[in-house]
Amino acid sequence: MGNTGLGKMILHSTFNKNKRYQKELSDACLYGLDIPGYDVGWGAKCLNKKQSYRMIVCDSPFLGPRDINKIKHARVGLDHHLEGLGYFNNQDKPSDRAEMFMNLFDFKIKPYYYNDKGHILLVVDRSGLYKSLGYEPDVWIKDTIQSIRNYTDRDIEVRFKNTDVNFARSIKNDIIDLFNNVFVTIPDRMMDVYDDFKDYFCVVVFTSNLAVSAAINGCPVFVTNRNSWASRVGNNINNINEPKLIDRTQWLYNLSYSIWSFDEIANGTVAKHLNLKKD
Fold this sequence. Notes:
The protein has helices spanning 13-16, 19-32, 96-105, 127-132, 137-149, 165-178, 210-216, 249-256, 262-266, 269-273; strands at 38-42, 54-59, 73-78, 119-123, 156-159, 182-185, 200-205, 221-223, 259-261. It is 31% helix and 15% strand. The termini are close together. Helix 3 crosses helix 8. A 5-stranded parallel beta sheet has the order 6-5-4-7-8, sandwiched between helices. The protein has a 4-stranded mixed beta sheet with strand order 1-2-3-9. Helix 6 (165-178) links the parallel strand 5 and strand 6. It is α/β, with parallel strands linked by helices.
């Protein structure tokens, strides 16, 4: 890769622990994305460094199994892992890849539901992501809860990532002391497209990919950062009592054109899709 080289590939720590995934993704990138003038990195981690060259960014796929031993796909784009800040060439796309993934992973877009007895799920992103986008995570949490409280006193579950336990513990008591009807959870694992969201009235996120799974499952989604992958199907918090039921069909078509198999990465399909050319 020019002067940068794939030896500098950066993988998310979760996937560094899985040698199979690390090797298969690295090999695929070596064969299919070894393009002069570009480097390959994993998600937000690679964006903390200043580059004078463009970055090919790999990240976890939205669709398919969460079990790292079964994942054989990755999200791939240029410059950033968020849709609003990166380039994925995924606008106004046909239905073919979405249909392929729905058959491959046995899921479908579920009808919207309205659970008036459910509570609000507020999903907290990894704390470092907020800072990389110019936000303080604790401020976002408190401001978002207050925004919700301007419209409803419905119970709120504040869910942290299971990889950010220290941050969660450091702020947990402050949240509970400041607001009524709020509780904090740190799950053993993150939810995915196969989970049931029907216990929730809605899901509120900053940029969390969990909003993608919630939207597919018919749970109303509220997104506070327009760069999120779910922003096109997300509501504004001032509509939290009457969420708009936004059509998700074209959104899923477009989303599917950001996710690629290791074989597609290796054989040059992704390089062609992203308008990259080898010398």
